[in-house]
Amino acid sequence: MARTLAILLTLAAALADVAGAHGLAVTALVLAVPAAALTAMLALGDLLASPDASPVTRLQAVLSGVAVACLLLAAAVRVPLAPGGDPPAIGASALVACLAVFALQALVAGLGALRPRTLPLQN
Fold first, then answer.
1. Which of 71, 102, 107, 115 pairs with 56 at a CA distance of 20 to 30 A?
2. Is the Cβ–Cβ distance between 73 and 52 less than 8 Å?
């Protein structure tokens, strides 16, 4: 649920930026940070709870942390802007990078689900 919320808020921020509603984009980014942070903490918890975690679980945890960092950067550089000002290039780049990380997470999850499972040998 938190991952979906973070993705939707990030998409809303990107669409608001394209539409020129930079104030709405800042609000969406600030709201997306806690949702993404919760997702990253849950992914890290899954990783730490399983001593033999799969590579997919490990990669999801790393990508969740990268997404939080990108969201924090995108939000932090926009907050001190004067109303009506365009966001700095680094803010837009961080937002695009975050969307790319979310897409990569979806790809990893999809490929992990398609991976053939090995069945235990029966005697």
1. 71
2. no
* Counted domains in the chain: 1
CA–CA separation, 65 and 47 (whole Å): 13
Cite the DSSP H helix spans in 20-88: 22-49, 55-76
Is 103 part of a structural domain of the chain?
yes
pTM: 0.83
Asked, for residue 123, whether it belongs to a domain, the answer is no
CA dist 66 → 2, 5, 89 (Å): 16, 17, 19
How does pLDDT run across 56-110, given as a tens digit for each residue?
889 999 999 999 999 999 999 987 766 667 788 999 999 999 999 999 999 998 8
Residue 108: CB atoms within 10 A of its CB come to 16
Range of the domain at 56: 2-113
Does residue 15 belong to any structural domain of this protein? Answer: yes
